[in-house]
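FW: tagging you since you asked about this chain on Friday. Here's the raw sequence from the shared folder, copied in full. Didn't touch anything.
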Amino acid sequence: NQTGVGVFVQSQWNPLERLKLINSGRYDHYSDYDGSWSWKQGASYLVPAIETLIFANVSASYSPPSPQDLYFPLFSNPNLVPEESRGWETGLEKSFWKDRITVSATYFHNKIDNLIQAPAPFFIPFNVSQAETEGVETGISFQPCPEFATSVNYTYLTAKDTGNNVRL
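HL: got it, structure written out here
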C-alpha cells in the first residue's frame, strides 16, 4: 500500500497584453519515499505582426516508481528508486482559418537521473543512472465546427543512456 499527498500552486502574470509568464510549484509527500518539490517556469508571447505564439519552459520533476514496477509478479523490481529530471522546451504555434487549423512545433531536451526502463523481452524495470532525451514534436489540428476536432502529431525522439553511452 502506497500513499501520496500533493500541494500545487501556480501564478500567471501578464506584464504586457500579449506576454504571459507562468510559475508553478508542487510539493509531494510519499509514504515510501522522501518528499519532493517539482517546478515549472514558462513564458509565451503572441507576436502581433504574424499572430504566432512563441513559448519556452524550464522545469524539474520527481517521479517515484509505480506499484506495478515495484510489485507486479515476475515483472517488477522492488529496488527501484525515483526518477528526477530537469528539462526545457521552446516552440511555436500558429492558427489559420479563424483558429480552425493550428500547426505547432516544439524542440525539447531533458536530463534524467535514475530513469526507470523496462526493456523487452523480459520487461523487468531497472534504473538507468543518467539519461538524456531530446527531440522535436510537431502537430496539426483541425476543428471545422465545435462538435468535431481531429489532430495528427509526430515526435522525433532520441534517448541515450549517458552513463554507458548507449541508445535507449
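FW: The first helix runs from residue 67 to 71.
HL: agreed, and Helices lie at 67-71.
FW: great, closing this out.
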